Amino acid sequence: MNKNKYFVFPVIFIACLFSIVYSPKIFAQADGHEHASTPSVGKPESEGAKIISGFKFKSLNFVPPKVDRVVLENGMILYLLEDHDLPIFNITARTRTGSIYEPPEKAGLASLTGYVIRSGGTLSMPADKMNEELEFMAASVETSIDRESGVASLSALKKDIDKGLKIFADVLMNPAFPEDKIRMRKDEVVESIRRENDNPSQIAHREFRRIMYDSKHPYSRKVEGTLETIEKITRDDIVAFHKKYFHPNNIILGISGDFNKEEIIKELNSVFAEWKKEDINFPEVPKVENSFEKSVYYVYKDINQANVLMGHLGIHRRSPDYFPVMIMNFTLGGGSFTARIPGRIRSDEGLAYSAYSAFQTSRDIGVFFVSCQTKLESTHRAISIALEELDKIRKTQIDKEELAQAKETFMNQFVFRFTTSASIVGQKVDIEYEGLPLDYLETYLSNVQTVTQEDVQRVARKYLHPDEIKILVVGNKEKFDKQLDSFGKVNVIELK
Question: Taking the model in full, what pTM does it have?
Answer without folding.
Answer: 0.86
